[in-house]
Amino acid sequence: GLRSVVLGVGAYLPQKTLTNDELAKLVDTSDEWIVQRTGIKERHIAAEGETTSMLGEKAARAALANAGIAPQDIDLIIVATSTPDWTFPSTATQIQAALGMTQGAAFDLQAVCSGFVFAVATADKFLRSGSHKRALVIGAETFSRIIDWTDRTTCVLFGDGAGAMVLEARPSRGALDERGVLTTHLRSDGRHCNKLHVDGGPSATQTVGHLRMEGKEVFRFAVGQVTDVVKDAFAATGLTAEDLDWFVPHQANRRIIDMSAQKLGIAPEKVVATVHLHGNTSAASVPLALATAVADGRIKPGDLVMLEAVGGGFTWGSALIRW
Ligand code: ACO
Questions:
Q1: Got the DSSP string for 265-281?
Q2: Domain with 129 in it
Q3: Which residues pair with 168 in a beta bridge?
Q4: Start and end of every Beta-ketoacyl-[acyl-carrier-protein] synthase III N-terminal domain (predicted)?
Q5: Same domain, 290 and 230
Q6: Does the C-beta of 253 come closer than 6 Å to ligand 1?
Q7: Is there a single domain that holds both residue 142 and residue 225?
């Protein structure tokens, strides 16, 4: 059979940072409150005119360089985003054009903060089917554009950024110690739509809208529910928390990350966390964390890496990868 092997990862963050102290000048909050409840210290904010596709293109170029291949080697682009440049065409086709590509297929996928894990799972199925050879999977967001900057309960949580991964279909014996995506598990439950949503859109309101969230409900769901997809990955492979080298969860909140790891029996030193520096960058958070841990030498070839994410919908998922 075929397996989707990670050739490289990359990331891009807008230059401008926004610290908690700077936020405290905009709304009634404090560095102490934000750090204690979320672990977030600062986040990056896109410049005026800097769009999701621009961030995504830079992350894609970094991932291609890390993989040692050219845009012309790619035949599939999947972009996970909830903040596209335009209602249509897709951000993926914008990035395709920016990379100078005319070959292959490019499309967007929307699963909010779970978007990157959903996109990896989707690309993996394309590659293993044999229909496509090399995929560029991108998570890119400009949540600063949909934040209500007068709402202290949400505006302190989010940031902008992009991350990307290159996957290649390679022949596989199907062994657990062979490189590549070992298993993916996706879930959704649309009954929870109002707990985390944007109150605008082309069909419902003909406006862009702002992010609205019932924080406590989201927190409870994130800690209570998402561990099932990680357990599904263990059950599908026979591997355990002990076998993991790295746990790379969605970076929404340090408390959610720590409580999830604890619930799963994953040792704290195996947890990759970047939320203190990036805030919640939605679909970009997992690839940003991955790119950070690859660049600083933590994640190495042969490591067993568990990706996990949860987001609006709700949606949630896992991807277990032999790096
Ligand atoms: N600064 C200061 N005070 C604040 C702020 C702020 N930024 N935001 C809220 N408060 C106040 C509230 O008004 C409230 O005041 P009150 O007691 O006078 O009414 C008090 O702080 C406590 O508010 P709670 O909402 O009860 O605070 P909680 O402990 O639940 O923490 C938080 C809020 C951090 C949002 C938490 O619920 C959380 O992390 N939820 C998960 C949200 C999340 O991560 N979402 C990301 C998107 S979802 C995802 O990616 C999975």
A1: T--GGGB---HHHH-B-
A2: 2-171
A3: 5, 134
A4: 107-190
A5: yes
A6: yes
A7: no
Q: Which of 223, 253, 255, 275 for mutating ligand 1's site (highest number of atoms within 8 Å of CB)?
A: 253
**Confidence (pLDDT) at 56:** 99
Q: What is the CATH number of the domain that holds 161?
A: 3.40.47.10
Secondary structure of the chain: what % helix, strand, coil (to 5)?
Answer: 40, 25, 35
Quick check: is 280 catalytic?
A: yes
User: What is the per-residue pLDDT across 200-235, written as a single tens digit (0 to 9) for each?
Assistant: 999 999 999 999 999 999 999 999 888 999 999 999
| Per-residue model confidence (pLDDT) at position 226 | 84
Q: Which of 132, 185, 250, 278 is catalytic?
A: 250
pLDDT at residue number 146: 98
What is the per-residue pLDDT for 148? 98
**Closest C-alpha residue for ligand 1 atom 29:** 37
**Annotated catalytic residue 113:** yes
Distance, in Å, from the CA atom of 137 to the CA atom of 124, rounded to the nearest integer, reads: 10
Q: Where a domain ends, among 146, 171, 196?
A: 171
Q: How many domains does the chain have?
A: 2
Contact 2, 130 (CB under 8 A): yes
Pair 19, 153 in one domain:
yes
Q: pTM for this structure?
A: 0.97
Judge residue 188's burial from the number of C-beta atoms within 10 Å of its C-beta, 0-12 exposed, 13-18 middle, 19 or more buried: middle
Complex ipTM: 0.94
Same domain as 222, residue 282: yes
Atom of ligand 1 nearest to the CA of 221: 51
Ligand 1 centroid distance, CA of 88 (Å): 33
38 lies in the same domain as 101: yes
Q: How many CA atoms lie within 13 A of 195 on its CB side?
A: 18
> What integer best gives the mean pLDDT of the chain?
98
Q: Is 155 a catalytic residue?
A: no
